[in-house]
Amino acid sequence: MSKIYFCQRCLYATTHPLGLTLDAEGICSGCRIHEEKDYLDWDYRWKLLENQVQPYRNLNGQNYDCIVPVSGSQDSYYIVYLVKERLGLNPLLVTYNKYFNTPLGIRNLANLRIKFNCDILYQNINPISVKKITRTTLRRFGSIYWPILAGQTVFPVQTAVRYQIPLIIWGAHQGLEQVGMFSHTHEVEMTRRYRKDHDLMGHEADDLLSIFDILKEGDIWQYRYPSDRDLHTVGVRGIYLGNYVRWDPKVQHEQMMREYDYKTASFNRTFDCYDYVDCFNYMDLHDLLKLYKHGYSKVTDHACREIRFGRISRDEGLALVHKYELAPLAYIDQFCEWLGMTPRSLEFMLNQHRNPEFWQQIEPDKWKFNGWSQQRNDNQSIQDNYNPLKSPIIFEANSLLEYKQEEKYITIGKGYP
Predict the structure, then answer these.
(1) Contact residues for 7 (Cβ-Cβ < 8 A; gap 6+)
(2) Which residues contact 69 (CB under 8 A, 6 or more apart)?
(3) The dihedral of CA 335, 339, 341, 347: what is its sign?
(4) What is the 3-state secondary structure (H, E, C) of 230-263?
(5) Is the dihedral of CA 403, 409, 415, 417 positive or negative?
(6) Among 63, 112, 115, 54, which residue's Cα sits nearest to residue 88?
(7) Which of 149, 210, 255, 385 qualifies as a FRET site for 265, CA 20 to 30 Å off?
(8) What is the enclosing helix (H) or strand (E) of 119?
(9) pLDDT on residue 62
(10) What is d(CA 135, CA 293) in angstroms, rounded to the nearest whole number?
(11) DSSP secondary-structure letter at 197?
C-alpha cells in the first residue's frame, strides 16, 4: 500500500481524487483556502459580482438574464434566492431528470419554482438510453451517476446556446470547497475540461461508444457538450457564486428552511440531512461505490466541512465517520428493479470496483476495510484502540424522502400541487 498522509486539521488525505497537498505544517490546501472565508472582504466581493452580472441584464424583457441549474436539493434554493431576490435577475431555471427522484425532491423542486416564481425547463432523456448508459458506466467506471453528472452539467450549457442566454450561474465550486484547487480570488469559471476530468471521470459521451458495448449514437448524443464555436458565438460563461459569497451550506439551508419551506430528510450514511434529498441513490448506492473506490465516503466530506467551520472538532468528525460510513444501504431493491438486475448480480459488479488499497478479501463475500478512517499517518490501524466520542447532533430533518408516498422512483414529476 502506498503511503497516505492526512491533514492535521480535517480528515482529508493526500489520495483525495480531486488532488490535495499538505503544507509544512501538515495543513491541507482545502483548509488553507477555507481560511479565506474569514478574512476576505465579502461586501467588496458582492460588488464584484454585481458588476459581473450587470451587462447581462435584459432591460427590454425580451429574454432571460441568466440560466440557473437547479434540483430538488443541494444549494438550489439559496442560489435562486441570491439570483432572484438579491441580484434582481430574471433567471431561467433548468433541471435534469435523474430518474432516481424522491417524492421529497419533486416536492422541493415544485416549491422552489412556486416560491420564487420562475420559469423552468426539464430535460428528460429516453429512460431506455439512460439505463443502457448506467449499465455501461457501472461496469466500466464503477459509477451509476455518470449520466446524471453529465446531464446536469451539459443541459444548462446546451440551453444557453439554444436560447442565446450567455450567463450561467452555479453555486459553489467543488474543487475549491473541498481541496482548495483554486482561491476565491481566482474567480474560476465553468470549463469543459473540469467537467470532463472530474465530473465525468475523464470520459466524455463519445468515449462510451465501443464495438464491445451496445451503446449507440442515439443513446449518447444528448450528453455532448456544445462546440467551442457555438460557445464563442453566444459568449457562454458560467460563474460560481461561491467566489463572491461566504459559502456555508448548513447556514444557507437553515435560512431556506425558515423562509422558503425547504424540506429535509435523514440518511443512513451521513449526519447531514440537508443535501441530496432529491435522490434515493446519491447517499446510498452511489456513496457506497465512492467508499469502495476511494476509501472514504460522503460523510467524510460533510465532517471535513463542519470541522473547517469550527462546529465540530476533528475527533468528533472522525466519530461521525465511524458511525455512518459502513451503514447498510436502504434503497438497493429499488435500483435493482429499475435497472433490471438481481441484487446478487449487482453485488458482483460492485465488488469489481473495490480498491485493493483499502479492501482485502478475507473469504468469499467477506472483506476487510482499511480506508481513511481506519488509518493514522503511520498507516497503523486504529480500529482496535479507537474510542468513539458521542456524536454531536447538529442537523435536523423536517420530513422524509418518501414525503407521504411509497419508496419508489418518481421518473417524471409534474410537481406539487
Answers:
(1) 13, 20, 22, 26, 27, 28, 30, 31
(2) 93, 94, 95, 96, 152, 155, 156, 168, 170
(3) negative
(4) HHHHHCCEEEEHHHCCCCCHHHHHHHHHHHHCCC
(5) negative
(6) 54
(7) 149
(8) strand 119-123
(9) 85
(10) 17
(11) I
- Strands lying side by side in the sheet with 167-170: 119-123, 91-96, 66-69, 167-170, 237-240
Paired strand residues for 96: 123
d(C-alpha 263, C-alpha 256), whole Å: 9
How many Cβ atoms from other residues are within 10 Å of residue 322's Cβ? Answer: 18
Pairwise CA distance, residues 9 & 6, whole Å: 9
Integer angstrom CA distances of residue 236 from 182, 228, 281, 346 = 21, 10, 32, 40
In whole angstroms, how large is the CA radius of gyration of the chain? 21
Residue 124, pLDDT above cutoff 90: yes
One-letter amino acid at 327 equals A
As a dihedral over the C-alpha atoms of residue 74, residue 103, residue 109, residue 243, rounded to 10 degrees, the angle is 10
Rounded mean pLDDT, 321-329: 96
Asked if 333 and 408 count as a contact pair (C-beta separation under 8 A), the reply is no
Residue 95 CA to residue 99 CA, distance in Å, equals 12
Tell me which amino acid residue 61 is: G
Q: The pTM is what?
A: 0.94
At 289, list the grid cell.
461505490
With bands split at pLDDT 50, 70 and 90, how would you rate the model's confidence at 391? Answer: low
How far apart are the C-alpha atoms of 336 and 135, rounded to whole Å? 11
